[in-house]
Design brief:
The protein is mainly β and about 210 residues long. The protein has a single domain, classed as Sandwich (Jelly Rolls). A 7-stranded mixed sheet has the order 1-12-11-4-9-6-7, with no helix packed on it. The protein has a 5-stranded antiparallel sheet with strand order 2-3-10-5-8, with no helix packed on it. Strand 2 and strand 3 form a beta hairpin. The radius of gyration is 18 Å and the shape is globular. The two termini are about 25 Å apart.
């Protein structure tokens, strides 16, 4: 596989990851905050997941490997020959409206509203609309320094609600044509940059635990 290299990227997303008091772009709200559902893109405005990602709030900084960030996403276009890679932390994606067809380096996942999906730091993935879906909106929580993991069942024992068997894993999948140009949108320290390569990142046939 040939890595063509990094290149600047024009993005419509608004990402902010430094929530320290020294950052003039953020400010502390003294009161609780809530918001109405964010508007979906217009039908004639083509926005994919990488352009429809926006920061809402957070605490800490990814450089300190400590903190958390909250995002909202709104998009109506699939990521064609395009993938996303978050090198800052783990994503927990929670769809609000619209069914997601997600492809990762480990395979594919079908994610509906009412479900959650975790994408670990450094994993390349594409978020697309499932068949018949026109647009999607949801929330993402990102953690730095720690990882999303199943909680201890505690005093509930075997009757807890976080048994490993209740969670799904990706279905192994390999792209039909691997030798195509791909743009990998990288989030590094809260900034987007693109890595251009001449090979699909989704070249996994199967995986084992």
């Amino acid at each position: 596989m040939l890595l063509v290299g990094y290149k600047p990227i024009k993005t419509r997303s608004h990402i902010e990851n430094c929530f320290l008091s020294l950052n003039p772009k953020v400010e502390t709200l003294p009161e609780q905050a809530e918001w109405s559902p964010f508007p979906l893109p217009a039908d004639d405005d083509h926005v994919d997941f990488t352009d429809g990602l926006h920061t809402l709030a957070g605490s800490g900084d990814p450089n300190l490997r400590e903190g958390i960030a909250l995002y909202v996403y709104m998009f109506n276009t699939n990521m064609t020959n395009k993938a996303y890679c978050n090198t800052d932390g783990d994503f927990l994606i929670c769809p609000q409206t619209g069914i997601l067809d997600v492809q990762t380096e480990m395979g594919k996942l079908f994610v509906q509203p009412g479900e959650i999906m975790v994408v670990q730091r450094g994993v390349r993935f594409s978020v697309n609309l499932a068949e018949g879906q026109k647009a999607a909106r949801g929330y993402i929580t990102e953690v730095w320094g720690s990882m999303w993991e199943l909680p201890d069942l505690g005093p509930l024992g075997g009757h807890g609600l976080a048994n490993a068997r209740d969670f799904l894993h990706p279905v192994a999948f390999i792209d039909d044509d691997l030798h195509v140009n791909f743009d990998i949108v990288m989030k590094n320290n809260g900034k987007h940059i693109a890595l251009e390569q001449d090979h699909s990142p989704y070249d996994v046939v199967a995986w084992v635990c």
